[in-house]
Design brief:
about 180 residues, mainly alpha, 2 domains, about 60% helix
């Protein structure tokens, strides 16, 4: 329901400053949709049917990437506010359907938090983000396969691995200096 409130706030925004703030809040909320949907599937589906349910969610997200731009183009004919107002009936329908379909209680099993996995995930995502920021758009392939040296303030040279040299498939790069 957070997306509903923020969508309404953005659509009815009195000033431009409200628009990016609302979009940022929407981004935080939307970033949790896939993990929460996966967790709900893990809680509600038996083990032998989870793969199919997760595949269905993946298919829905894939379909949304195809239909989304076309739908946005049609909605823009009526005004940019409709890009946000369309969320109101959709999220209301999903909330009502969720109350009707999803079970009201969870199982009593509680798994321990995977701290080691969280540290590895954080390091991998930070490396990926750092690597993507270092890719040269004008020479994409060369930037992916050619190692670069670090700025002079970095303690060792060379400090980066190219995409092809990295054993984990993450490009750890530095910003070019000069």
């Amino acid at each position: 329901m957070q997306i509903n409130v923020v969508s309404l706030d953005v659509a009815l925004s009195p000033r431009f400053e409200v628009l990016p703030a609302g979009r940022a809040i929407q981004g935080f909320g939307a970033g949790g949709i896939f993990p929460v949907a996966s967790a709900v599937i893990a809680d509600t589906f038996p083990e032998e049917k989870r793969g199919g349910a997760l595949g269905l969610i993946g298919a829905v997200f894939g379909l949304a990437f195809i239909i989304g731009p076309v739908l946005r183009g049609l909605l823009l004919r009526f005004g940019w506010q409709w890009l946000f107002l369309i969320n109101l009936p959709v999220t209301a329908a999903v909330a009502v359907l969720g109350l009707w379909v999803l079970p009201g209680q969870r199982g009593s099993e509680r798994a321990a938090f995977d701290w080691a996995g969280m540290v590895v995930l954080a390091a991998a995502l930070a490396s990926l983000g750092f690597g993507i920021n270092g890719v040269q758009a004008d020479a994409l392939w060369t930037g992916l396969v050619t190692p670069r040296s670090c700025p002079s303030y970095w303690p060792r040279r060379p400090c980066s691995l190219s995409w092809a040299e990295s054993s984990v498939g993450l490009s750890i790069r530095s910003y070019p200096h000069g």
